[in-house]
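TA notes, week 10

Several of you asked for a full example with nothing omitted. So below is the full record: structure tokens for the whole chain, then the designed sequence directly under it. When grading your own attempts, check the secondary structure regions first.
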């Protein structure tokens, strides 16, 4: 376990619902190639706050890498709807691009 991961886990003990910390921890696991733990923390984010838009793109990419294209498509579709509702067109466009790359 890296020092960075240890620090994030300790921060999460104090603030378990913090989406930024969960997201950061998931990205650290992605860097290590630990897709299972990364997915777990991305999914925790969606459970804690389905409006945390950044999670949809990264979870979708993880699902693509692990061969679950159907789940990735659904993740991108949901993320686009959430981003649009939030008025976050930058994230919407990123999600739409990932979706189109996968579907078309």
């Amino acid at each position: 376990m890296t020092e960075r991961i240890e620090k994030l886990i300790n921060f999460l003990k104090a603030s378990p619902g913090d989406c930024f910390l969960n997201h950061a921890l998931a990205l650290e696991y992605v860097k290590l190639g630990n897709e299972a733990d990364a997915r777990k923390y991305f999914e925790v984010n969606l459970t804690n706050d389905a409006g945390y838009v950044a999670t949809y793109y990264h979870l979708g990419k993880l699902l693509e890498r692990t061969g679950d294209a159907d789940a990735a498509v659904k993740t991108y579709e949901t993320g686009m709807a959430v981003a649009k509702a939030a008025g976050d067109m930058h994230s919407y466009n990123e999600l739409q691009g990932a979706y189109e790359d996968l579907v078309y």
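The CA atoms of residues 8 and 24 lie 8 Å apart. Use that as a sanity check on your answer.
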